[in-house]
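Because showing beats explaining, we let one protein speak, sequence and backbone structure tokens together, and leave readers to judge.
___
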Amino acid sequence: MKKSILFTSILCLSLSSQAQKLSNYVIQYNQSFNGNTAANQNAILVYANEKETFVSSAKEMNGQLAPPYERVVVERAGGNALLKIAKLKDGSIILTKDSLALSKQKFNATNETKTILGYPCKKVETSINSNKIEVWYTDKLGVKGAPSELGQDLGLVLEVIRNGNTRTFATKVEKVKTIPDQLRLKGTEKPYDELSYKDLIWKNRFIQIPVFRKESIRFSDGVKSDSILRFANGTVLVKKVKIPKIKTSDNVFVQLVEQSKGDAYDRTGSVFIIPTNKAQSFLDGMINGMGTLPKYENGNGKAYQGVVKTTSFEPIVELMRFFTPFGVKQFNYLQLKDKVWQDSVLYRQDVTELAGMLSEQEVYVGAFIGNYDKNGHEVSVELTIHPGFDAESKGSLKKTMSLFTTTNVMEMGGQEYGSMFDKEKGLTVSFHLDQDAKNVQLRYITTGHGGWGNGDEFVPKENRIFLNDSLLFKYTPWRNDCGSYRLSNPASGNFATGLSSSDLSRSNWCPGTVTPPIYIDLGDLKAGDHTMQVQIPQGAPEGTSFSSWNVTGTLLFD
């Protein structure tokens, strides 16, 4: 019994002695770009001894770092495992572990040497995603570590240079008694495979606002939902969405994923906002009938419902105009040699300029695809808000005013097509500014539609925009790159000429694409009344075929 106690005591003393003999270091790193080192940056901190390495930062150690953020740990004893540990916004801790990651890193040795902070260093090189990386390390301290996962098994990395201009360099190497306990695993971290781990961190870096998730847009009244309003026989979806505060440094995107569920044709689509800042809104017309909305007339005998601003009404604002391809997904069985059809189409667009009408608001977001198919299309829509690279939010968000939208999203609910350009009057709208407006822009989206060979869809037509009776801007919208999207169009008709219908150039759109806005500078506008007019030489009808134009105009100003 006495011998057992004695042995245990000696073993404990031996382990204690080994722990005391471990040489613990903390290395601090800064970063520079093109020789310029930013002030007040978050210094990288590496804690290392012979058995383990931790990569952290000064702000994390001081509790000043906002999640999500990561820490790298190398367990050198028993396998040289690389662990990545992240803290998410909800306070949870996740990790992923790879025992082979470090062994997969490959470097090319060089004969170059230099001294860094008094330590002789060797240089190796590697290439990552076409980036040339130079790594300088020393093996004179008996420990291994690096400011990232790269080079963790070389020695102690004191400098990393990427593409000759981005430099991470050690500023201090200091011996310490122990490695802080706050860096060690607590046993409550949730393990994930590496791909899931990366995805969780990525999605934690921005705000996702889901709007529609795999919802049907089809010509049918059979689909019901408690939270989603459906109009025009199911071809329009509307949902009220709460938007958090958006800073001027943030970026805002709208994203839609579409698949055909039965409709084989290229269709006009739109993701839009319904302004509710006036006595009457477009939603009122959706509910009570389009005939209840203000009507615009140009003298051709037609009445166009809800397309121009009045003193008591603002038309919809299109976040994104898109066009479905010919039958993506549903018709992928229509095989052609050397053609591998896409499974779906992703449309994604920056709409940051409209943040002023979204920030801290509850807004009605709509999605529309014009079709008469009982199975139609399936869509998912979301908004995302991304923090800007500039941490400070300066100034104010742009103000907005919706002037006109002729895109007839209620097409299947009786809304007239935008055919008012058959007269010289075209589209004319009056608007009033209560105050002087600075840096005014017109956010303008335009696409031509209708007919076959002689319709405006296939014939370039000049758009002319007048402000207060003076010509402000003119251009001819046209897309000649439609053939680039052939793999999204399995049901597109093929002609004897060797072309597909989806290849043909069109008036500012292609099947399977977004039509982005253009931004027309108006300068500064004085308070008071103003008039804007859009003229397009719209083609005459041919039999039952006719031409029309979907144009949207929104003012942006300070």
The CA atoms of residues 123 and 136 lie 5 Å apart. The helical segments are 2-21, 58-61, 194-204, 282-288. The chain has two domains: 23-201, 206-557.
